[in-house]
């Protein structure tokens, strides 16, 4: 006779289910402190050691933060909860840097579209300052770092937290490679000028409140980056990728 009894959930799964339910119903929020181990153990009828292991498992996936002597808290930076699963999915699926780039391209285009709809005067001023700083920064490494902040700012301005968090998780996945590719592009004789021009057009489209044009400008920018990446195959080898 086949045993149809469903397998029992592990302690960390039960605790995660409870946390997710409370988050869903807004009874828990980022930064909130979770009940002490003793209370979890009493409610679930398990040892405090089992609860402690469960909390550590949740910390590993970025859902909670453990403060020594201060308790356990829902992670205020919940994008961290996406990083580990994205990294694992990438490696198990045999992903390439182009998979990440195309995923990022879809999100960046939508972020630009929404940013053009939601940007305030202060937002536009911030983007303009970053674009100007990139264009006038002689150090390619520093310019690449500003480039990263520029795109991150557009994602924030979009007003869609999921887009911003998803982009953040991809950035963490291949941070070293994506960073080096930016440096390589702006180190090229024509690369810096092209990027500066594209960023300027993108800011203009967002400032004009034209979502369709902003999406088009971002698409042009991402396609340019993709064409350049095709010449950097030596950079994108498994030996250069560091698992975060």
Automatic annotation (TrEMBL):
Sequence ranges assigned to domain HTH gntR-type in this UniProt record: 9-77
Listed SUPFAM superfamilies: GntR ligand-binding domain-like, Winged helix' DNA-binding domain
A Pfam family reported for this protein in Swiss-Prot or TrEMBL: FCD
CDD domains: WHTH_GntR (cd07377)
Residues in the signal sequence: none
Keyword Coiled coil included in the entry's annotation: no
Keyword DNA-binding annotated: yes
MF terms in GO: DNA binding; DNA-binding transcription factor activity
SMART domains found in the cross-reference section: FCD, HTH_GNTR
Keywords: DNA-binding, Transcription, Transcription regulation
Domain of life according to the entry: Bacteria
Cross-referenced PANTHER family: TRANSCRIPTIONAL REGULATOR, GNTR FAMILY, UXU OPERON TRANSCRIPTIONAL REGULATOR
Name of the protein in question: FCD domain protein
